Amino acid sequence: MTQPSPQLSRLEHPIEAVIIGASGGIGQAMLRALLNNPAVEHIHAFTRKRPSHLSQLAMEHSQRLSLHSINLSDEAGIAAAMAQLESVSPNLVLITSGLLYTETRMPEKSWRQLDEDYFHQQMQINALAPALLAKHLIPKMPKDRPALFAALSARVGSIGDNRLGGWYSYRASKAALNMLLKCTAIEAKRRWPQLVVTGLHPGTVDTSLSAPFQARVPEGKLFTPDYCAESLLKVLDGLTPEDSGQVFAWDGQPITP
């Protein structure tokens, strides 16, 4: 039986949500959790690709779910996608998109494997795209009531917690994301005092993103996407404006900068 989703009690109901990267493993789980939450009135889901089952889901929930296309590789694509929300004022934004490896490049084990194009791809998708989404989305968010803007980060983006090295591009992009979220939180607080801007570390989730790296995951630490989504929504449910600018793990613990 599907468990009820956290009610996001800090947000005024009904909730209008935006999900970026809704076709990924965590994005789809977030989408399911929000559809299972009666407090969520409408979801605007953005994807680069549109798998058939997602289109079917949109048909089944046509009154509550709208699908949109987005290209995160440059600001023009992001701006064009956000223009589709002309009359929308979301009080919940979830960015679940991300890049760890490509068809030709895996995370670096040494500086000898650094590659300019791969590094730029990581920074574009994992750091710059969420920052540009904040630029185009936060002005649409309400100023007079609580709101949440969250992007998936990663513990490996922590400088203080880095004891193994490697994964240069991915670590750097997530560290950059964390700094961009911090800057965004500081600036947004001036005009959106009830907005929480945060990064979320989902742990290791059983998706295509983590598939090549699951062999060394300790027992009990490989989470299902649905468990991850419920855990992260529970974390969001407990955040206040004083937490804005920080990064939190799936269990609610803050991540060391």
Assembly category: single chain
Major β-sheet strand ordering: 3-2-1-4-5-6-9
Strand content: 15-25%
Biggest β-sheet, characterized?
7 strands, parallel
Tally of DSSP helical segments: 6
The CATH architecture is: 3-Layer(aba) Sandwich
The number of E-state strands comes to 9
Keywords, separated by commas or semicolons:
257 residues; alpha/beta; Rossmann fold; seven-stranded parallel sheet; two-stranded parallel ribbon; 6 helices; 9 strands; 33% helix
Helices and strands in order:
Elements (H helix, E strand, L loop, with lengths): L14 E6 L4 H11 L4 E8 L4 H9 L4 E5 L5 H8 L9 E4 L20 H22 L9 E6 L15 H21 L6 E7 L2 E2 L16 E2 L1 H13 L9 E3 L8
Helix pairs in contact: 1-6, 3-4, 4-5
Protein described:
The structure is a single chain. This protein is an alpha/beta fold. It has a single domain, classed as NAD(P)-binding Rossmann-like Domain (Rossmann fold). 33% of the residues lie in helices and 17% in strands. It is built from six helices and nine strands. It has helices spanning 25-35, 52-60, 75-82, 116-137, 168-188, 225-237, and strands at 15-20, 40-47, 65-69, 92-95, 147-152, 195-201, 204-205, 222-223, 247-249. α3 (75-82) packs parallel to α4. The radius of gyration is 17 Å and the shape is globular. It starts with 14 loop residues before the first strand and ends in an 8-residue tail after the last strand. The model has no long low-confidence stretch (mean pLDDT 93).
